[in-house]
Write a structure and sequence with these properties.
By secondary structure, the chain is mainly α. The protein has one helix and no strands. The protein has one domain. Helices cover 68% and strands 0% of the residues. The radius of gyration is 9 Å and the shape is elongated.
Length: 28
């Protein structure tokens, strides 16, 4: 399930980046 959570985070970051026009850095 960890992989699914990572995918969700990436998708959310991509959506946020698209909306704000800024690149969102993922927290590792």
């Amino acid at each position: 399930l960890e992989n699914n959570l990572i995918v969700v985070e990436i998708l959310e970051a991509a959506i946020t980046s698209h909306k704000t026009g800024k690149v969102v850095k993922l927290k590792n």
